[in-house]
Amino acid sequence: MASAPLLQLSGVTLGFGGNPLFEGLDLTVQQGDRIALVGRNGSGKSTLMKLMAGLVLPDGGSRVVPPGIRVSYMEQEPDMADFATLGDYAASGLSAEEGYRVAMAAEGLGFDPSRPVATASGGEKRRAALAKLLAEEPDLMLLDEPTNHLDIAAIEWLEGQLSETRTAYVLISHDRAFLRGLSRAVLWLDRGVARRREGGFEGFETWRDTVWAEEDVARHKLERKIKAEAKWAVEGISARRKRNQGRVRALAALRAERAAMIRRQGTAAMDLDAGPSSGKLVIEADKISKAYDGRTIVDGFSLRVLRGDRVAFVGPNGAGKTTLLKLLTGELAPDSGTVRLGTGLALAVFDQARARLNPEASLWDNLTGDPEMRVSGRADQVMVRGVARHVVGYLKDFLFDESQARAPVKALSGGERARLMLARIMARESNLLVLDEPTNDLDVETLDLLEEVLADYPGTVLLVSHDRDFIDRIATTTVVLEGGKATLFAGGWSDMQAQRRAAEPEKPRAETAKPVEKKQEKPAVKAPAGGLSFAEKHRLEALPGLIEKLEAEIAKLTELMARPGLYETEPAKFRKASEALAERQAALSAAEEEWLSLEDKAAG
């Protein structure tokens, strides 16, 4: 007998007083679901997640959660007013065992539980909220942009946790590598309709484009039918007035159907103009060093950037990536060494803090108030790559409507602020583009378009990002910053990892007089030595239980697949069992290897 859903929305309508954001929306989340919730910025993903969490009540329809089922939502801006430290907040309402998991999550996510709430950044607060959610181990987790403010090491740690959990989850993320690695189904929110596709994010974009193509064909057929019926009405209605009122009413119905169609939002009209070329040499840094408060950012770092290069800078939060960008562009002076800039450089900067936007001013004023975009004597126009444009028309290129033009920037979502920043930097001619965390909050379609624009951009790009997929698609060189050391690698993120693995010395293998094959004995837990980190100690203690569970599941699946005639009578069930068996066998092998590695490390 199938188990009851963890959560069900039926016939949900929500409008916030205007046109409905959702109308008659149905959604079900089952045990074991790993769902990627995707859609354009402004499509209502976060609102839908709050509906699922019970934080927003629908205008109509119902939300059903069975008794005893715990649904937890990761707050974007958690209220920590009553707590002294981040750890106090993260452990609030938890048992001693759950509090132990908070400490492990704090290490993996990279925040200090003893940090006073009063001095914590927004990113640190979000990481504490995420740690609290993971420690609770609810039946269903709702994760809205959990990778924002995380560096790549923390993102990979979180991937590992979510890949092993038995908790169902729904997640929103702009990180395509994260979505591909974790999702088993996609819930696509498009113009108030939620479509579900099994199989994870990998094939989502192809499926989405197919749906849109079918939609375009249906709309084209409807337009042709309306034109044909309208022609008949104009040419012959007077002669057949009494007998054809039904056909006239049918034409009205067709027009009403066309009017009810919600046209999908287009893509932003992004473009970059490199203007005059820079010299062949763009930047030459020679043995530069920089330290703050006794902490080394870079030491003796050298880099030569030529016209057309795309250089990505990666590393943990706080490693100094933004500082290094400022050193290379001349905004900061190094403590030692030299930086030489090439000739004819025209710089455009996308900063991660969006500091170049005035949050109190309107979108209109942020554009017309930019000295490089101002058109003398015209308060309603901006200069876009040498051509005067009406400010509203230019904002529409970046998917803002006329009503938003006079709204304050602080009312925009994170993705909308990112689009406004792109509108500013793309209005000017540049041949050196500095992008500091440009992918935060952008939807998949805008990311795709940004990648296309950068691919055609003849200038030079310096990029800071934690988005591994974006780095792979853009970078020709990757610089890794760790502990004051900067190391260069050819290619993107995956290329860098491959080069690192190739450079690692092989571990010596113990020789035996005679190879002996024997079954791996189930590991017994030893008290780990001090060589392990807090998280590694806990992991070593947990692995035997995980191995035992995987072995039991493999035995059950093997027994099921051995049932006579299963393949012929229930091919879908056989296929699912086969896929599950392969998955668990791989997980068992990985768990055993991990246990052996940790045991070796613990033994010194």
Structure commentary:
The chain starts with 6 loop residues before the first strand and ends with a helix. The chain is of the alpha/beta class and 604 residues long. The strands form five sheets. A six-stranded mixed beta sheet has the order 5-6-7-3-8-9, sandwiched between helices. The chain has a six-stranded mixed beta sheet with strand order 14-18-19-12-20-21, with helices on both faces. Strand 1 (7-14) and strand 2 (22-29) form a beta hairpin. The chain has helices at residues 45-53, 86-91, 96-109, 122-136, 152-164, 176-182, 204-236, 245-260, 321-328, 363-368, 391-397, 414-426, 444-456, 468-474, 493-503, 534-561, 566-569, 571-602, and strands at residues 7-14, 22-29, 34-38, 60-64, 71-73, 140-144, 168-172, 185-190, 193-198, 281-292, 295-306, 310-314, 336-341, 347-350, 374-375, 378-384, 387-390, 432-436, 460-464, 477-482, 485-490. The radius of gyration is 28 Å and the shape is globular. It is built from 18 helices and 21 strands. It has four domains: 7-206, Rossmann fold (3-Layer(aba) Sandwich), CATH 3.40.50; 207-260; 281-502, P-loop containing nucleotide triphosphate hydrolases (Rossmann fold), CATH 3.40.50.300; 534-602, Helix Hairpins. Helix 3 (96-109) packs across helix 4, helix 7 packs antiparallel against helix 8 and helix 16 packs antiparallel against helix 18.
